[in-house]
Structure formats: C-alpha cells, structure tokens
TrEMBL record:
One of its GO terms (cellular component) is cell outer membrane. PANTHER family: LONG-CHAIN FATTY ACID TRANSPORT PROTEIN, OUTER MEMBRANE PROTEIN NMB0088-RELATED. It is a multi-pass membrane protein. Residues 1-22 form the signal peptide. It is found in: Cell outer membrane. One of its GO terms (molecular function) is long-chain fatty acid transporting porin activity. It comes from Glaesserella parasuis. Coiled coil: none annotated. It holds the Pfam family Toluene_X. Keywords: Cell outer membrane, Membrane, Signal, Transmembrane, Transmembrane beta strand. This is Outer membrane protein P1. Belongs to the OmpP1/FadL family.
Length: 432
C-alpha cells in the first residue's frame, strides 16, 4: 500500500540528487571498469559482462561465459545554506512576512553502495545472451527532523532496481545488434516535517510516503567494428512508466484520506561511443550521452474521478554528458585507466532543495588486475565536483480574499547547495 499525502504526491520523484552521479536522480554506476574511465566509451567497450547494462550488442565480443559482480561505494558531501520564512503577497506586493529562520543543513546525503551483477553467455559464434541486475535510479537524502524548511525536504529514499535480459547477434561485415528487456522495481520512502511553519512542534510529521511499483522498458544497441583496433557503438534505453496508486490527504480532500494516483516516467536516454586502440598498449574511449528529462515537465495527482488534487511544475531540460577516457596495458596482467567527464544539470528552470542538481565534473582513475586468464578484479576511484547552485524556492500555503483582492501566503527559501562526492568501485570478473 502506497500512502501519499499532499506533499508526498508533489515530491515523490523530486529526490535530493546532489549525491547522484548523473543528472537529477539518475545513477551512472553500472560498473567499476567504466568508472575508471568516467564511463567514457560505454557503448563501445567490451571489457566485461557489464555490457549487458550499457550496450547489449557488445555481447557478441565474448567467447566464454563471463560473470561480473561488485558495486560502487558513494561517499557524498552535500551541504545546504540559506534562510526560510513565509510571505503574504497581494498583486505581487509583500504585505506581511514571518521572521526568517536559518535553513542550513550539512551532509544531507548518507553514504550508499550501488551494487551490480551481470552474466554473458555465448550460444554460438554469432549469438549471445545475457542478464543483469543494477540500480539505475536512486538516492537517499536526510535532513534533521527539526529542519526549518521541512516542507521542502526531509527524509527521502528511492531505489529503482533494473532487471535485464538481453540477446545479441553478429550481423557480419563488422556489425552487431543487441536488444534487451527491462523490469524496474521502484521503492520509495518520503517524510516531511513542519519545521518553522510550526515553531511549537517543528518535528511534527507533515507527510509520509512508503510504496513500491513495477515498470517495464526496453533497450537496443548497435556496434560497428571498423577494424580490430577501432569500434563505434550506439545504444538507446526506453522510458519506463511508473503508475503509483495510493492515498491522498490535503486541502482538495478537506484533510480526509481519499484514493490518489500519480503517473511518473523514468526518462529515455541514448549514447554514442568510440573505442580506438592507438598502440599495442594505449587506447582511448569517448562518449556523448543525452537524457530526455524534458518528459518531466510536471507532477500531477488526480483522484478516481480525474479531479486534479495537485499540480507542480518541474520543467526539466534534456541534459548532455560528455566523457573522455584512456586505458594503458602496463603488462598483460595489469591495465590502468583514467577519465574525465562533464555532466549538465537537468533542473535549470526550476531548481529545488529536494533536487539540488548542478553541473558536475568527474575525475577518475582505475585498474584491472588479471590473477589468471579467467579471474580479474577491477578497482576505481572517482572525484565528482558540482558547481554551486543558488536559488529561491517557494510553495503556496494558502490564499484568501482581503478587501476584494487575493492574498497569497507562501513558504519561501533562499538557498545555496554545495556538493562533492568520492566514489570507490570494486568488481570481480570470472570466465568459465
């Protein structure tokens, strides 16, 4: 059972994502080998079985059954500074305001592990199948229960686990094609408190949400081997619809619990990548990735009769990510990697404390050591630095007529978000 309140319905997918590795609440940590190159070449590099999550067409490059298991530990440092209060306006003019409260909060993103598991199995010289489990969307943020701007942000937790089954076929003439089916299980927990809106009981719960839902999608990929040292790849992942059903409590229901519905979409994205082996030891990789966040224009909740319970503009923009990486085979058993990437923010038009999304730059290092021809271990480290984001966030609390004019009271926060993160990856790969 999903339990939605007014604030929860408005916020279910506005997760605090400053600690996320990609824009908004998207996660990029699909593998450790990729992390070492800032995920450059994701759609063209066939280092291990994690290709199931990036480009299924690459599965035709495997001659043995291979398993990869591991994860990435995300240690984010995200701080919020600012102030919070209320203002009452008539025709845009402020006629009353509350005392301003401190809205500072430190370390709002707890550390987390993003796990992964993949397997690729060649069926014939031309055909291969594979499967995998990874977390492609998710975040956890936690503000103090007495946080003054508690109506904007409190405790938020999201995981969207992706289960994938894929197949690939070598078309000949250097081309390979792959397709996959995705089943996504999303779980969400959200809690908000009154904060400065109720000075006598700032920790009182204003809203609470806990629920889960399944959604389904697909992905395709194509690779072209120019020759044995040069490869191009392109991959596309479809949107995934999540149709949450639960209960609504708010002004539209006179604070009585009624059924509510909210449809959300995890955005589609595509990627173009290249891999070029320049010498016997040195190779370069690059990627351009586009995520279609413009599908996330608003949050709209309705009741069983189609009546709008709430509507909140989001107006996300499509975002781009570019990455460049290098790999160097020191000896047959050891490969070193490095990478750099730039990831655009998706929430330019309507930034929010619950999505303190910023442009971010990646700096990464990695290595693979092969203990035997069948057993290898990947290690990687990444430092992410986000640009500072300063903005004003507001939420209408109510309206009433005063002398023939409408007086609107809103909660207003003047906020600044600073974010950095350190990522540590480990994967074990085994060929059978």
């Amino acid at each position: 059972m999903n339990k939605f309140t007014k604030t929860a319905l408005a916020s279910i997918f506005t997760f605090s994502a400053a600690g996320a590795s990609a824009a908004a609440f998207q996660l990029a940590e699909v593998s450790t080998s990729g992390l070492g190159m800032a995920y450059a070449g994701n759609a063209a590099v066939a280092d291990n079985a994690s290709v199931v999550a990036t480009n299924p067409a690459l599965m035709t490059k495997f001659k043995q059954v291979e398993v990869s298991v591991g994860g990435v530990y995300v240690d984010a440092d995200v701080d919020v500074e600012g102030s919070f209060g209320t203002k009452t306006t008539v025709n845009g003019n402020v006629i009353a305001s509350s005392p301003v409260s401190d809205a500072n909060a430190k370390d709002i993103i707890p550390s987390a592990i993003v796990p992964n598991l993949y397997v690729v199995a060649p069926v014939s010289e031309r055909f291969a199948v594979g499967g995998g489990v990874n977390v492609n969307y998710g975040l956890k943020s936690e503000f103090p229960t007495n946080y003054s701007a508690g109506v904007f942000a409190g405790k938020t937790e999201l995981t969207a686990v992706n289960y994938n089954l894929s197949g690939a076929y070598d078309l000949g003439y250097g081309f390979s094609f792959g397709v996959g089916l995705n089943a996504v299980h999303a779980k969400a927990t959200l809690e908000r408190h009154f904060g400065a809106l109720n000075p006598m009981a700032p920790t009182a719960t204003a809203s609470r949400l806990k629920g889960d839902k399944w959604g389904f999608g697909w992905n395709v990929g194509l690779t072209y081997d120019i020759n044995e040292n040069n490869r191009l790849g392109v991959a596309y992942h479809s949107p995934v619809d999540l149709r949450f059903k639960g209960k609504y409590v708010g002004t539209q229901s006179t604070n009585v619990e009624i059924p509510g519905r909210l449809n959300l979409e995890l955005p589609a994205y595509w990627e173009i990548s290249g891999y070029h082996k320049l010498t016997e030891k040195l190779a370069v990789q690059y990627s351009y990735k586009k995520t279609h966040w413009n599908s996330f224009q608003e949050l709209r909740a309705i009741d069983n009769n189609g009546k709008v319970l709430l509507q909140k503009d989001e107006k996300f923009n499509n975002n781009s990510r570019i990455a460049l990486g290098v790999s160097y085979d020191v000896i047959e058993a050891l490969t070193l990697r490095a990478g750099i990437a730039y990831d655009e923010s998706a929430s330019v038009a309507h930034p929010s404390i619950s999505i303190p999304d910023t442009d971010r730059t990646w700096y990464t290092l990695g290595a693979t050591y092969r203990f035997t021809p069948n057993l290898s271990v990947d290690l990687a480290y990444a430092h992410l630095r986000g640009s500072k984001n300063t903005f004003i966030e507001s939420q209408v609390l109510g309206a009433q007529l005063q002398n023939g004019a409408t007086a609107v009271t809103s909660a207003v926060g003047e906020l600044k978000v600073k974010s950095t993160a350190n990522l540590y990856g480990l994967n074990v790969n085994y060929k059978f």
